[in-house]
Structure formats: C-alpha cells, structure tokens
Amino acid sequence: MLGRTLLALAAGLSGLLASPLADEPTHALFRRNSTSDLSAFKGAVLLKNGVQTSCEVALMYNTYAFVAANCLDYITTSNGTSLALNTTTSYTVAISQGLTDAYGTFSVSSVTPNPKYDPVSFANNVALLQFASNGGSSFVNYIASWRPEWTNRYFVRRSLNAASNSGFNQPVLTAYDSTSDDTACAQANQLFSLNQKDLICNKLSTASIFNSSCAIPYGSIYGVVNVNTAIAALYSHSAVNGKTEGPKAFCSGYTIYNYYIVLENYIHWAMSIMGTKAPVFHSRIPQYTETLDPGYSMAIPNPKNVEGYTVYGGDLYHLTGDASKASHKLSGGAIAGIVLGILVLLALLAYFIRRKLKEQADNRVRRWWFFGRFFKDEEDSRHDPPREFMDDMEFVPQRDLMGPSTSIAPDSGMISPSLKSHNDDMPTNLKYKKEYEAEAEAEANRDEKSRSHPPSYAIEF
Are 224 and 343 members of one domain? Predict the structure, then answer.
C-alpha cells in the first residue's frame, strides 16, 4: 500500500515539474491567480545611448536575455549586401524589481543577432544580449517553451518613467487568447503566412508614453499554463495598411497588424552561445517536443512584404528609420517616372511662357529665350495712317524740316502744308530724318521754281 502511494505521488509531481532536460536545475515558479500579478517577475527594457526604447527584453539569467534583432543599430558592409552591428551604439538593460521599482541598469557587453535574421522580412528576429551583473544577486526568469499547452496569453507593456529613465511605470497588461485576426494577419504579412507557429498576431495596442494619441503594440507576451506563467514572445514588427511613414503610421487610425516572435524555437541557438542550459518551462508530458537545432530558421518569403502594406519594427517610440527597406525606398522605375513627369511639366511651362513673351515682344527688338531665339519685324506699323486713307492722301513732310510755311494755290495740284497738323506725320524712327530733310529741300526748290515760272494755260474753244 505504501509503495503504491509513493508511486502515485511521484507521478503527480512529475506532471508539475518544469524542465525539458533531466540535468536542468529546479527553480521555483511563481503561480498566477490574476492578470494583474506581475510583481514577482523581473521585466526589462532596452536603452540605446542612455535613451529608453519601446523594445522589451526577455530575461533568462541575471546576465543573459533575448531582444528583437531589429531593435539594434546596423551599418551596411562594404559589399553593400549585408549588415553589421554599429559598434558606436551603447546598449544598457534596465531591469524592474516588482511592478514599478528598479532592480538596476546594466551595461551590455556582448550583442549577438541570430545569423539567420533577415532585416527586410524580419524573419528570425531575435538577438542575444550578455550584460554585466554589477554585483547584483543571481536570478532566473523562465521561457515558456511549448506553445500548444498555453491556456491564455498575457500581453504586457513595460516602460520607464519618461522624464528621468529611472523607475518603472505601472505595466499595462491585457489577457487575450483569440486567433480571430489570423486570416487578416496572413494577408497583410507574408512572413506570418508561412510561419504561423513562430509568430503571434493581432491588432491589440496600447498608448505610447510619449504621445497618448498614438497606439503602439505591446512589448512582450507571457504564456499561461494552468496557474503558471512565463515569458513566451517579444514584439517583432507591424504591418500597416497604407503607404505611410513616420508617426502617422501609428497615430492616424490606420489598420495595423502586430506580430510577436515566439522564442521557443531559438532556445537551443541561445544555449550554443551561452554555453549553458536555458531556463524553460513546460509540463512534463509525453506530447512535448522541442527544436534541438541551433541553426533553426523560419521560412523566408518571396516577395518579402505584401504590396500595399508598410512594415515597421524595432523602436517605435521615435520611429527613426525602423521601417522595412522594402516599404520606404522607391524603386528605380518609380524615381524615373517622377523625374520624367517633372521634366514634362517644366517643358510645358517653358512653352507657354515663351509663347506669351513672343506675343508681347516689341516688334523692333530682337528677343532671346533659353529654347532658342526669335525675331520680330523691324518695321514700325503702329504709327502708319489708317489703310482707308492711304489711297487719297499724299505724304507731306513737316514744315519744321522744310523751312518757312508757304501757301500753294489749290489749283496747283498740291495740298498746302499749312492745312496739315504739325504732328500728323511726324516720323517715329529718326534714322529716316535725313531722307525727310532731302525730300523737304527738293519740294522747297520746286515751290521756288513754280513761283518764278508760273504755268501757262491754253484755252480751247
């Protein structure tokens, strides 16, 4: 009887113990009976150059943690096809003690992105941080390592006091286990469509600490197994329905799908770097399986993003260049089309300006324009007498060019100069002045001759 009792007790305990490996040390798990109880967990936030980001950290030990790889800063290598970490960026990890107290801030000494990380699609979007303990006490945070047994999910957003970066704000927590958005999530993002076991997606969001009118995703997800809870996923990226960039994406009411990377398939990759076992949590049941390959990779889609959606990831507080390359760079064809359109508009504008100038140009002035030159007739027609009078009028030069006015008999066949206005036929172009003077002198000579030799008249009957 005693033997059967001991066997039954051993069987019951085996269902509660949490360890995927026989040699793994046993750590006490915090039991949860309400969604508001996060005080026993140590949460963490990544800081870059002393400034907090929206990137949360999944702690394992007091010296190691997961973070999303797109939260790090990169530079393009000399061959232009790959990325390398920007070594000028300084990283620190701020760790909470309970809900709002600070456990400490620790400098990151080593950053290792997953070698399969794709910065365009955000596949395999994880990195491992190693940081100094600064003499702090040792602690362990578990990673929930078997998704099929999660009975609920807690979406959590942690943040530091925005004014001082010291002390934590009250964490925001939402319990949500629905998969109702999965179909729309797959249509908005190719990576999720091919890797639904590695990603969690929905439209949940919470207010940004820097702008309460902007909604950003939660930072982490905790998996719930009966009464136990452990961190399970980190925010990876978002797909925004529309061609927009910057704060407008999260502040203008666009439809946004948020994707979180599940950590369980990257545990053995992290162990290969740490050189020790990772603290994981799952029920010890026969159905449990785990990914043992440290080189595990998601399926990388082609094309990597969906047309009509802009993909964002990394630090969303400031949105400094975190949009996916495929979403915010114009293609060569688009740039060529824009340039051609601008040139056509400039050509049309120049044509109409030239045409207007040509219409308004002075007839006697030679004009130049940047598309060529054109000429106007040099004759001045503005001062010509009306056409209907030309046939009946004989041109008579000005008296001031001829000398004293002289009366001429009407029957002489000439019009008396004194009958014409002084300015009626004043030439406007002075280059003809000598011609008029010569003509006036000749007419004066004819007048003088006419007075000296009056004409004779013959009368016939």
Answer: no
Q: How far apart are CA 247 and CA 237, in angstroms?
A: 15
Residue 12 lies in a domain: no
- Per-residue pLDDT of 182-204, as tens digits, reads 999 999 999 999 999 999 999 99
Determine how β-strand 367-369 pairs with β-strand 256-262: unpaired
Burial 223-255 (b: 16+ CB within 10 A, else e): bbbeebbbbbbbbbbbbbbeebeebebbbeebe
Contact status, residue 270 vs residue 128, Cβ threshold 8 Å = yes
- Asked if the bond preceding 303 is cis, omega within 30° of 0, the reply is yes
In three-state secondary structure terms, 51 is strand
Burial (CB count <10 Å: 0-12, 13-18, 19+), residue 441: middle
Q: Judge if 258 and 313 occupy the same domain.
A: yes
Total domains in the chain come to 3
Quick one: tokens of 457?
A: 């008249």
Per DSSP, the three-state class of 415 is coil
* CATH number, domain containing residue 193: 2.40.10.10
Banded pLDDT at 41 (limits 50, 70, 90) = confident
Question: pLDDT (tens digit, 9 = 90+) per residue, 254-287?
Answer: 889 999 999 999 999 999 999 999 999 888 777 7
Contact 122, 324 (CB under 8 A): yes
Backbone angles phi and psi of 327, in degrees to 5: -100, -25
Query: Can you tell me the distance from the alpha carbon of 362 to that of 376, in angstroms, rounded to the nearest whole number?
Result: 8
- The answer to whether 136 touches 103, Cβ cutoff 8 Å, is yes
Task: Give 346-388 as a DSSP string.
Answer: HHHHHHHHHHHHHHHS-TTS-EEETTEEE----S--TTSPPGG
- Residue span of the structural domain in which 145 resides: 28-329
User: What is the token pair recorded at 261?
Assistant: 């990377």
Tell me whether residue 174 is exposed, middle or buried, using C-beta atoms within 10 angstroms of its C-beta: 0 to 12, 13 to 18, 19 or more: middle
Q: What are phi and psi of 251, to 5 degrees?
A: -125, 5
Contacts of 47 (CB under 8 A, 6+ apart): 53, 91, 92, 93, 94, 105, 165
Q: How far apart are CA 458 and CA 79, in angstroms?
A: 115
Rounded mean pLDDT, 174-186: 92
Q: Does 70 lie in the same domain as 140? A: yes
